[in-house]
Each structure stands twice: as structure tokens, then as C-alpha cells.
Design a protein that fits this description.
Blueprint (H helix, E strand, L loop, with lengths): L3 H7 L29 E3 L5 E3 L7 E6 L6 H12 L1 H6 L2 E7 L3 H8 L7 E4 L4 H5 L6 H6 L5 H10 L17 E5 L5 E6 L10
Parallel strand pairs: 3-4, 4-5
Antiparallel strand pairs: 1-2, 3-6, 6-7
Length: 198
């Protein structure tokens, strides 16, 4: 790990907060063809968000790592490129991060991204959806293009990436919900940067 850590830190994968500990997963993974667990919170700009309030639209609910993760930045840009087609398909995009609100606002400053961003530093929603941390999956990322993805994600930003403030071994997850809030697809990542195909 000593040899890997400097490389991962260089592409924004390694958390700077050494005190961050993996959040224990106490709930069962969310299954397909079941109702998505509802939640009520605010987005990073203080706007109320209730998942069930999005009924009537399809929802792509994605759990990212943290705002300083370059691989996550690459995914956001991929989603941004698909924004028009997602809108045409009546699909709302909700992105949940481990970062705190201040770090999320730093990440989004001067950006016009038509998605809902939620800061979840206490990892309440991560726990509700059983989004895991995994050393094995984190290390597996090295064999699945994580370095190239990180470099590509870093190159897409015109400003310094925010500080890392999440779990180093966090693995993302995506949930595609239908108009009635039923989970059509539940995708728990196999490694960092493994998401539902667009």
C-alpha cells in the first residue's frame, strides 16, 4: 500500500483525512423491483429534497465518493454531457457525496450543472442504501483503469480540486428508479469508477 498510495493521491483517490474510518454497513443492499428507501434532506444550496417528491420522474440516484475524487469528477462530466438526453427521458439526477457542504460548494463554484447535489458527511444516506467501503475493491481499481480515469477527471477541471474529505475505500453505487420510485437497476460498484452505463 505504501507504493500505491502516492500514485492514488496524485489522481485524487486517497483521502487526506487519515482519521476517516469506513462507515459500517448495517442495512441490507437495496434490491431491484423494490421501493427505493425514501429520504428527506437539503441539497448543498439549502433547497429541500425529498426523494418521494420526485415521483412522476425517473431518477438516477448516484452515490459518489467525495468532491476531491478525480474519478468522480469524470463521471459528473459524463453525466453532464448526457444532460439533454436525460432531461428528454424525464430523468432527474441526484448525486450524493461524503463531502461536507462547504467542500461541495467549492467544487461546484462557477459551475452550471443541472443536477441535485447532496452533502452527506455523516454518511446517513450511504448507510441507508448500504453503500460500501472495501479495501479489496479499492485495490482492484488499479487493474480497472483507475489511474487513467483519475487523470482524465483531473484534466476536466479548470480549477484545483477540493481537499479529500471522505473514506479512502468508498466504492460508489447507482440506483435507477422508475416514475413510482421503484428500483429498476441497483448497481453496487465492483471498483472505484464502476457505474451504470449511460
Amino acid at each position: 500500500m505504501r507504493l500505491v498510495a502516492p500514485l492514488l493521491a496524485g489522481v485524487g483517490l486517497l483521502a487526506c483525512d487519515a482519521a476517516a474510518q469506513p462507515h459500517p454497513t448495517t442495512l441490507m443492499k437495496v434490491a431491484e423491483r423494490t421501493a427505493a428507501p425514501d429520504f428527506s434532506t437539503t441539497d448543498v444550496f439549502g433547497k429541500p429534497v425529498r426523494l418521494s417528491g420526485l415521483r412522476g420522474q425517473r431518477v438516477l440516484l448516484s452515490f459518489m465518493r467525495n468532491a476531491g475524487c478525480a474519478v468522480c469528477n469524470l463521471r459528473v462530466h459524463e453525466l453532464r454531457q448526457k444532460a439533454d438526453s436525460l432531461r428528454a427521458a424525464n430523468t432527474a439526477v441526484v448525486l450524493v457525496y461524503e463531502s461536507d457542504t462547504a467542500t461541495m460548494r467549492e467544487y461546484l463554484a462557477d459551475e452550471q450543472i443541472p443536477f441535485t447535489f447532496i452533502a452527506d458527511p455523516e454518511q446517513t444516506l450511504f448507510g441507508q442504501y448500504a453503500v460500501e467501503t472495501s479495501v479489496g475493491k479499492f485495490l482492484r481499481s488499479m487493474a480497472n483503469g483507475v489511474m487513467a480515469k483519475g487523470k482524465a477527471g483531473s484534466a476536466l477541471t479548470h480549477k484545483p480540486m477540493p481537499r479529500q474529505d471522505g473514506n479512502m475505500t468508498r466504492i460508489g453505487a447507482d440506483f435507477l428508479l422508475d416514475e413510482n420510485g421503484i428500483v429498476e437497476r441497483a448497481h453496487y460498484g465492483r471498483f472505484v469508477g464502476d457505474h451504470l452505463p449511460l
